[in-house]
Amino acid sequence: MEKTELNGKFIGVEQDANVFVLSKKFTYDGKKAAKLNITALGLYKAEINGVRVGDAYLTPGWTSYNKMLQVQCYTVTDLLRAGENEIALTVAEGWYCGRLVWPDAYRHYGDKPSVCAALQIGNEELVTDESWKASESYIRFSSIYDGETQDFTAERKPLTPCVRAFDKSVLVRQIDEPVRDIERVAVREVLHTPAGELVYDFGQNMAGVVELDLPQMFCGTVACEFAEILVHGNFYRENYRSAKSTAQYTVRGGGIVKPEFTFHGFRYMKLSGIELPAERVTAIVRHTDLTRTGKIETSDKRFNRLIDNVVWGQRDNFVDIPTDCPQRDERLGWTGDINAFCRTAAYNYDIRLFMKKWLADLRNDQGENGEVPHIVPDVLHSTGVSAMWCDAITMIPYTLYEMYGDVSFLADNYEPMKKFLALREKHTQNGLIATGFEYGDWLALDREQLIGESPFGRTDEYFIANTLYFHSLQIAAKTAALLGNEKENAYYTKRSEKLLKDMRKEYFTPSGRFALDTVTGQVLALHFGIAEEKFRARLAKTLNDNVVKHEYRVCTGFTGTPFLLFALADNGYWETAQKVLMNDTYPSWLYEVDMGATTVWERWNSLLPDGTPNPEGMNSYNHYAYGSVMEFVYRRVAGIEATGVGFQSVRIAPVPVEGLNEVRGEYNSIHGKITAGYAKKENKVTYFAHVPPSVQAEIVLPDEGVVATGNGDFSFER
Ligand code: BGC
Does the C-beta of 330 come closer than 6 Å to ligand 1? Predict the structure, then answer.
């Protein structure tokens, strides 16, 4: 993280103002180049002569502000004019001191918002201080969860500026790409619901805002509410829990309006106070502006919808930090969710800078004793050692290293990994983890009763914990070796071998029967190499029988699901893997698609087969964890698999799926674009691949093994 300096004072206002404006007039000679360096404890919008500076939203982003605060820099020469100019900074509470987490939790980082800016013109600087004019804004209220109220008719009373103390040693340059207004989505349908409400359907669940074009003659107040689903044709927003997520505008004379300092997660908008034709209502998708790197296209519309749902789920939850969901009173950086989804995310988009920033947040919020937060930035003050969630400190850096070949992901996080593993060790008894809070196989539907069950799944939580501890120890060993630390490599290698031995003794009988009867238990034992080589075939068969017994339906949770199809496909059960992938009976991936999903749900049963929502309070229609299935499609169906870090070398091994006549995968790696897939026609299959010159490939065809090596264009008909 590049430290930076910023002149100027952090300025807030003495009054209790949720949003306020600071402004200053200055003269400009019409010649010199100008730059604005700025940050806030809260959120800011900067304007010069009434024109917005830059196109970023929700700046300066969300970090653990008191430990790391990003500064943005904009070139603003073009916004200045010779003579008198005015700069205005609107400031809101945002994540800094607005409501976050459960009801009534405010002020996580500080009491009141403030802004600090330096406008550099040639060699001179205009900086924020007590001499700036402060006033109320047309934005009367703004909150991440509750939405925004704008009143263009209200009097904007003067306020009193004041200095807020802040330790500037934590200032860094902006690390990742900004949040922007990325795409405009037109209304698909205007609905008058059975309950008599006016609802606009945008046809896509998304994170963003809605822009209204209010007619010139209009005077009055309009209100927008948001929802992800309709139930019995009616607007339904109970799953937002306490998040009001509204937008309200009072105008005299119309104009274009949209929220500034918030976002909603929605597909539907309910409008009251006016009836607008569809053309005057536009949704705007708002999220971090990442570069797309991967795509999957198939001949099947329904399957393509599933893939789109995964990609949308990523877009909607990459709003400055990787969140669990964009709609309810949560929208937090749950570590387990991004751990499950990270590799899919890295195939889809270049997430290097985005994750670099978030990993810095993770390190900043790690406990002195090595505990890892369950959410990052940690506004829950909930740290621990829980498998999958806290293993984010080892698994995510390693995944990013594998995807991008950048060792700094490991170097930056090695010490935090070590601290975490040392603490993990304290939870062992006789060599195995036996204490500590665990999320288990979160939201698994394997209690053989499809609603109302515990959210933790049925898989033995400490088996999961030990498996991922083993995996994390292996990562630490590999990291130590990569960083040239032989001693620590030897230590972690030895510790992982001992753990594996103890696990085998604990979980397998001498003749090879595995102790756990859950799909997730069996998946993890195979995927992470817990089963001894000589017992693998037997366990794979047990797993296969188990999945068949479940009629190919998915009953695994956050921990088992990312590895489910790999465990089947990589152990001789491709047939079963593809049947699970293509299954559309409840619960399954395509069941969600058939139920009208446009993003991936939090729970397999978020919508029950009768179209009603799962009655549990926790129910989101936009959670990416189960979207990790897309990784399997890239790696095993299209068959684009890295064999060397950063895709320096690859194995291209497309495998046809029944029901998908054509699949084309594409991944723009740091070494160039790799394409692979197949097309079935009558009784023939054409396998194809493109491998860029700097990548070494081996091409593998089903039942044939390696059929070619090298790079360039490949095509085989079979
Ligand atoms: C979140 C998650 C998270 C889980 C952990 C939920 O409230 O939405 O996705 O991982 O809690 O308990």
Answer: yes
Q: State whether the beta carbon of 442 lies less than 6 angstroms from ligand 1.
A: yes
> What confidence tier does 615 reach under pLDDT thresholds 50, 70, 90?
confident
Residues annotated as part of the active site: 330, 602
Helix, strand and coil in the chain, % to nearest 5? 30, 30, 40
Question: How far is the centre of ligand 1, averaged over its atoms, from the C-alpha of 344 (Å)?
Answer: 19
Partnered with residue 271 across adjacent β-strands are 224
Atom nearest to 334 CA in ligand 1: 10
Q: Do the Cβ atoms of 359 and 397 come closer than 8 Å? A: yes
Of ligand 1's listed atoms, the one at least distance from the Cα of 618 is 7
CA-nearest residue, atom 3 of ligand 1 = 334
| Ligand 1 centroid from CA 324, angstroms | 7
**Ligand 1 proximity of 618 Cβ (cutoff 6 Å):** yes
- pLDDT in the model for residue 617: 78
- pLDDT single digits (tens) 12-62: 999 999 999 999 999 999 999 999 999 999 999 999 999 999 999 999 999
516/560 Cα distance (integer angstroms): 13
Mark 174-199 as b/e (b = at least 16 C-beta within 10 Å).
bbbbbbbbbeebebeeebebeeeebb
Task: Return the ligand 1 atom nearest residue 625 CA.
Answer: 9
Task: List, for residues 187-225, the tens digit of each pLDDT value.
Answer: 999 999 999 999 999 999 999 999 999 999 999 999 999
Give the C-alpha separation, 368 to 415, whole Å. 12
Q: Ligand 1 centre from 362 Cα, in Å?
A: 17
Ligand 1 geometric centre to CA of 245 (Å): 20
Which ligand 1 atom sits nearest the alpha carbon of residue 389?
Answer: 10
CA of 241 to the centre of ligand 1 (A): 14
Pocket flag, ligand 1, residue 626 (CB < 6 Å):
no
Ligand 1: does its nearest atom lie under 6 Å from the Cβ of 324? yes
pLDDT digits (tens, 9 = 90+) for 240-250: 999 999 999 99
d(CA 360, CA 353): 11
Instruction: Determine the Cα–Cα distance for residues 384 and 461; give it in Å rounded to an integer.
Output: 15
* Alpha-carbon span 445 to 447, nearest angstrom: 6
CB 513 within 8 A of CB 532: no
Residue 608, ligand 1, Cβ within 6 A: no
Smallest CA-to-CA distance from 327 within 606, 13, 61 is with 606
Ligand 1 nearest-atom number relative to CA 558: 10
d(CA 59, CA 173): 12
Ligand 1 centre distance from Cα of residue 560 (Å): 15
CB atoms within 10 A of CB 595: 17
**Is 95:44 a contact under the CB 8 Å cutoff?**
no
Convert the pLDDT of each residue in 382-398 to its tens digit: 899 999 999 999 999 99
Which residue lies with its CA nearest to atom 12 of ligand 1? 439
337 lines ligand 1 (CB under 6 A): yes
**The pairing of beta strand 428-429 with beta strand 432-433:** antiparallel
Q: Are strands 133-135 and 19-28 parallel, antiparallel or unpaired?
A: antiparallel
Angle at the Cα of 14 (from 10 to 17), degrees rounded to 5?
95
Identify the CA nearest to 188 among candidates 197, 201, 176, 198.
201
Using left for φ > 0, alpha for ψ between -120 and 50, and beta otherwise, residue 644 falls in beta
- In whole angstroms, give the CA distance from residue 123 to residue 32: 9
Alpha-carbon distances, residue 698 vs 54, 91, 204, 538, 693 (angstroms): 46, 55, 39, 30, 13
Q: What residue ranges in 626-695 does DSSP mark as E strands?
A: 640-642, 649-652, 662-669, 672-681, 684-691
